[in-house]
Amino acid sequence: MNGNELKLMSVDELWTLHEEVSSVLATRLTEQKTMLEKRLRQLQLKFKGVKVRRQRARRPYPQVFPKYRNPAQPAETWSGRGKQPRWVVALLRSGKQLDDFRIRSSSARARQSRDGRKAAHAERRA
Hints:
Elements: H1 3-8, H2 11-46, E1 68-69, E2 77-78, H3 86-93, H4 106-125
C-alpha cells in the first residue's frame, strides 16, 4: 500500500485500518515478549550455579571543599583540582594572583583580625 492509496481512503476506512494494525502489532509484541521471557528463564537456569563476578563499589572519597571564590560571582567556586575554570584563567591573565581568590577559613580570619588588633594596640602604646 502506497501513500496515494491512503490519501484516497475515507476516514472510516483509515480508522478500520488503524484498528487492524494496532491489533496485529499488539499480538506480535505479546508473542515477542513471551519468547524473550522464555529465553531469559532458559538462561537463568543455565547460569544458575555460575557465580557472576560483580564490580567492586568505588571507595568513598572525602568531600572536596572549595578553596577559591570568584570575587565578581561569589557563587562560583573552585576546589583547586582539575582544570581551572574560565573565571580563574581570565583573572590570572589580568595580572591577579591565585591567592587573591583564596577562601580563608574562619580560624584564619580570626587570626588575621587578632593580629590586626595586636598591631593597633601596639601603635596606641607607642
